Amino acid sequence: MSNEATGSTTTAEFRFLEGDAVRVGRTTPLPTVERVWTEVGNAQRVSALRFEPQHPPQLVTLHGVGLNAHSFDPMLLALDVPAISIDLPGHGRSDWRSDADYRPDHLAVDVITALEALCPQPVTLLGHSLGGLTAALVAASLTDLVSQLIVVDITPGISPSRDASSVTEFIVGQRDYGSVEEIVDRAIQFGIGSNRAALTRGVTLNTRLRADGRLEWTHHFAHLDGPLPAAADDDPQPYAPSGPRFRRSRFQCHWCGRDPVS
């Protein structure tokens, strides 16, 4: 594992933390945050943000498809607990997979390696969207390290072709942009949000400037044909068979919304 200590929150990556703290009503000083990398095999690295790295983490978060570890900055500032927010492979500063296969079972292998390296004691694991499916598989494998699982806005019964069509169009329908404002306008048009300041923050942390001066998304999915991985045989509900595994696992699980296999 290698790390890039930030100590100060004035670097470009952390310039939004002050505003995030105001949004969530935090009145105490900002925590120390550092970026770390973990080797996960095949010359690949997974990157993560550590909040209050001087203490063992109590919470680990996995973001949704097309997002990154900074998605949870406001929540972690509000909770004020030692935490780790992971960039899933192919997202943020984590390496892209050479096979471009981002199904949850493949992501889980790398996340397990990262958790074993970064977490010396049991943690709560929270996953959103694709991170939720990945988190459930991780928790089922690491029952001694994951004491509680929280899954947000996803179930194994999701159909990528049916339930993610608007996300697909937003991400791959336009590959590059002239400005952050253009992306924010598109996000509002697609109903992704309405708060321009919050959207500007998210877009800025999730794009990069190309040599030709155009902006593009940093995650791999924007460079592929679709944002939500499906089964190789085009099963409309490729993750449903995993549902019973989650129920049988020896951890406390909180699902947001429907029954996990409905």
Task: Provide a descriptive summary of the structure in words.
The chain is α/β, with parallel strands linked by helices and 262 residues long. α1 (17-23) crosses α2 (73-79), α3 packs across α4 and α7 (180-189) packs across α8 (196-204). β2 and β3 form a beta hairpin. It is globular and about 45 Å long. The strands form 2 sheets. It has an 8-stranded mixed sheet with strand order 1-2-3-5-4-6-7-10. It folds into 2 domains: 2-159 and 236-255, Rossmann fold (3-Layer(aba) Sandwich), CATH 3.40.50; 165-227, no CATH class. It has helices at 17-23, 73-79, 104-118, 130-141, 160-163, 165-172, 180-189, 196-204, 243-248; strands at residues 2-5, 33-41, 44-51, 59-62, 83-86, 123-128, 146-152, 207-209, 215-217, 252-255. The protein has 9 helices and 10 strands.
